[in-house]
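writing this on my phone so excuse typos. first protein, seq and then structure
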Amino acid sequence: MRKLLLFFSLFVAFSLHSQEYFPTNTGVKTSTNKIVAFKNATIYVTPQKVIKKGTLLVKDGKILAVGKSVSIPKGTEIIDIAGKTIYPSFIDIYSSFGITKPKRTSTNRRSGKPQYDAGRKGFYWNDHIRPETKAANSFKFDTKKSTDYLKAGFGVVNTHLQDGIVRGNGMLVALNPNSSDAYRILDNTSAQYLSFTKSALSKQSYPTSKMGSMSLLRQMYLDAKWYATGNTKNKDKSLEALNTNKNLLQVFEGGSWLDILRADKVGDEFNIQFTILGGGDEYERINEIKKTNASLIIPINFQDAYDVSNPLIAKHIALSDMRKWNQEPSNLSVLAKNGVNFALTTHKLKKVSSFHKNLQKAIKYGFDKEKALESLTTIPAKLLGKTTIGNLNTGSYANFIITSGDVFNSKTTIYENWVQGDKNVINDMNVTDITGDYMVNVDGENYSLLISGKGAKQAGSLKKDDKKVKSKFAFKDGWIHLTIMDNGYTRLIGQTINASNAMQGTAYDEAGNKSIWSASKK
């Protein structure tokens, strides 16, 4: 009996211990098998394919169906968003999301000796060539930064370690804070990245100039070709990785029109067509840029207007700087009109939230809205070779934003950003827009009420005879709360009463006496 009990105890202990070796689906997917239908929306399936009063059917993180007449299965959750617009979520093809850029290695100046030899064994002879770098090894999902991207309408980023002349693999990440890396990482090796800038992780002195970087790249490609013949006895992890990555999208950080031409020249020598990060100044040499036939990635970090109020300071501003400030908002329009293929990026923006403001400025300078949507959806998806992002076709990821209208209009509100079928609320879609200029009547007194803002952040300011009146305004759960502090105080509570947002409710004076107040749009 004692032996039997001992055997049973060991069996249970072994069973409990061995459970952890069995695979589970916990954390892999957050989307359930529930079907959700969005009805009566204007749906941008692609920038060219737009459906009026259409239906979008979502299941298990993917688009199940989309069209004018879609059969809705039983048990489907139906969301009527009449008057709203659905767009594919945006893609940022050039990002460092979730990956910290290394700090430059300090140099011992006392020694006075530059470092010529590589600091690594088994890799390429120059430390600044690092094609073996894998973004996945240093990636950590940044929930705070993902929120900033989601608010701006982005659903996917292509991120990499922005360090070195050859920077290794990038990775494609869905900005889904409700999931895990097992599901939101769409591709661990989405591209290979290059630049003219040395790695901060090495003190090796060569190259010392941009010309030296170009020479190093040429030598590297020649060495990689020779290495591929198999005639060497020694292994080189860098050249092996370079040859492995040669069929990936090759993204080169330029940063100016001149560096675009330099990078393209290196690529042409080795039959490589780089996709090149520009600097926003391509308009200066648009004919040469066009001849490269390169696809570009364009940042829109327009500089602020110069302060010329002080004439002593104003005279020191270079004419070339003033010209750049004046012309750079037209850059996207110039590129598009000349048939240059390009995607947009938030790269170099201090805040992602300024992206739309700059893009709206570019549109005012002639950039076509359809082209703008292409540069944020279908073009980056095509460059990456991905057919399931950047569109709302059946089978694609359910990455989409719901807006109050034209996404490139400054007055438009982004309500929700769905990523892989998971909802992220940006602004409450059910909050009534009551913005406008109203005439308020209470106890025989007339006031002017101006309501501005979006969604739950709508705010009001009060005037009487063109003079500002101290007041407090709130709009929550459909109720308007207004306290007027004018020779005492009066508290107003009410709601809108018709489609034109006329308002009516009850007013309470300091003594608690009640009366009726009303407001109508001017």
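second protein below, same order as before
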Amino acid sequence: MGKVNRQWEMRMIYRVLLVVLLALSAINTTLAQQQRLIVAKDGSGNFTTVQAALNAIPMENRTPIVVQIKKGVYNEKLTLDSTKHFVTLIGEDKATTILTYNDFSGKVTSPDARTLTTSTSGSFYIYGNNFRAENLTFQNTAGPVGQAVAAFVTGDRVVFVNCRFLGFQDTLYTGSPRHWGRQYYKDCYIEGATDFIFGSATAVFDHCTVFSKAGGHYVTAASTPEGKAFGYVFMNCILTNEPPAEVLGTQMPPSQGAPANDVYLGRPWRPFAKTVFINCQLGPHIKPEGWHNWSKPDAEKTTLYAEYSSTGVGAGPQSRVAWSKQLTPDEVRKYTLSTILGGDDNWQPGLASGRQNGLTGIRDTSFTVWSSYQKLKKQYPAMQIVLPKVPSTVEADLNVVYCNQNGRELHLDAFYPAKSNRTKPRPAVLLIHGGGWRSGDRSQQVPMAQQLAANGYVAITAEYRLSTEALYPAAVHDLKAAVRWLRANARAYNIDTNRIATLGCSAGGQLASLLGVTGDMAKLEGASACHKGHSSAVQAIVDVDGLVAFDHPESGEGDDRKSTSAATYWFGGPKTETLSLWHESSPLTYADRQTAPILFLNSSVDRMHAGRDDLISKLKARGIYSEVHTFADAPHPFWLFQPWFTPTMTYTVNFLNKVFKQ
């Protein structure tokens, strides 16, 4: 009987194991098929807790899996195992999708009476590689009780986009000396008191806001391993002691900021610490000396603490400690995402599939009038460069700041009829330069602006953030702010606010058209406070060889087989992964009865007017006026040179005079 019972038990165990294996296989198959899991506290998803979703991911996973987390406060101590790779967490909204816990160093756990340390106080442990998080808050609510980690990140090739890290001391732990990887933080908010960004990772913080709370005196405590070329690199970040609204909707009320002259940029947790700030805005809480040696004089010889082009009250290279460094322009050129994070596997972090290597933070000067001339003069030996020449009837205000985008000043040059020629209010034109959304300069539009001013227009050439500095839609936000500037300064420049046009060339043509068809569309206005209360709508468009549809058969953008296309750089990823942005930024998408009249001036390069004919058909159906003029056998940048400049201006002035009844 005993032998029979034993056989029966073995059969039952086998059946149970078989059921479990089949269930796991089914889960893995489901994951491989749908590659998306949903977490919702209300039971409307696959799981009600985040950890349950993480547990369902197969060990040694190599299939990209997205965990979508619906809004809610998830009070869980979370772990993503080191065998679970290629996981992306996407929150519904960073203000309302919160991953939180409240452990801290020194806390005695129950029932095992274990005393926690810094390394075991974390709310979320991320050990897996190729991890990505978007639109989430990582939080530790223990408060000012000592070390209390919100996120402990040791995985390699890790990306955080539009996330928040909330805590006090030791908020963000970027890996221990033995376990660390490469990390990229884009448009994130990080707050804390003491050493609240610390660890061994090679990490880039790109356009992040860093808030120092009262009671702490250090922003960073890097422990860069010996021999590593890079530690922490902050690009275009804001360091502030003003309590922002980032914690609204969380369990942590806004805290008082650190006092003035109270906070160091960093101190070395380990002797080879490396921390660099490039083009960052530093608040008044930053101490004039900038850096602290943590009472380790020898560390002054081995650390690299450096800055380049710091701005704000907390900047001041003349007051920094002697053992810190101010980078030269040549030295800062090596601080690109590819150089810092590329590694042996050429990792390219980004908003989509790691293609954001174009965000270098360094100006691209490849497209100039001279470089175009050198390239084209053999094919067009009669061509001549058009040089700026201010007519006697024109006045100019140069290098005017029209907007400040998170510490980044944006400038314009204004050209207008001389005071003696001012009578009734004048129409105005915003001129937008080309260069593939990546290069070029507003000075290239100056000859056009001068001629428009000579013909009775107020003309401004405005700079905007290019794709080496900020991705779409930053340029759109900037240029809409420039239109609002025109209206805000209408009295000073005698502008008729009901007669404003955009004129753009190449990439600038696409931008000019986009401004003309989107009016005051909220989603493209941006959060900038620049001249709010004024409209960004325009009443006429001049598109000089600029496409109006990215996702169009005629468009050459998005072909990355030989090299990364300009649009791929601008959108932060290829068309296959960012198609919604390509569609959103196409003027053809928005043509309606409110669209402004448009003039198309085109070269003989067909791909430069992708979508034009489709847009014209839409305009005709709605009774909106348009014109097309094509220069046969003209090169793409024809507007910069004679013999094409003069007829370009003739067509432009005639069109604007007709539309504005000049």
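Residues 2-34 form the longest helix (33 residues). thats all i got for now
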